[in-house]
Amino acid sequence: MYSINNMLGGLAVGKEITIQKKNHNLDIGDKFDSEYLSNIVPVSVLTSYIVEVTDRIMNENLPEYYMSFIKNSSSCYFNPTSRGMTITITAKIVSITQSNLEFEVTIYDELGMICKAKHVRHIIEKRKFINDANKRLNYLKLNA
């Protein structure tokens, strides 16, 4: 078992990352039923950006024998944004408790804030996760 300091690698409160997106994939099945809204970026796409930015900061900083997954997430969407607008997503670590990292995520386009989110990621050993997943797969094979 590794200490929390070994688990965190380069992660610390205050660390942040910003990414930008312009070509939003709207062909994911989550579309609006109105032609008037056809260029609005769906919430599911914006949510995937929250996952992407927090996943990126974790992957770039965790030691190779650790991984993270989403423990919980809550988002508040303030304004719609349109296809073709540049969206800026910033994730900042605001707290670290045991093996949980809480992020504050903000999403803006050229006109202002679109979304603010709290996103918690849990750090685990890759080997343990893979062993647990394999147990479930073996259960399926035995009970198929």
Give a short summary of the structure.
By secondary structure, this protein is α+β, with helices and mostly antiparallel strands.
Model description:
With 144 residues, the chain is α+β, with helices and mostly antiparallel strands. The protein has a single domain, classed as Hotdog Thioesterase (Thiol Ester Dehydrase, Chain A, Roll). It is 28% helix and 37% strand. It is built from 3 helices and 5 strands; from the N terminus they run αβαββββα. Strands 1-3-4-5-2 form a 5-stranded antiparallel β-sheet. The longest helix is centred in the middle third of the chain and has 19 residues, at 43-61.
Distance between the termini: 35 Å
CATH class: Alpha Beta
The biggest sheet, with number of strands, parallel, antiparallel or mixed sense and barrel status, is:
5 strands, antiparallel
**Domains counted in the coordinates: how many?**
1
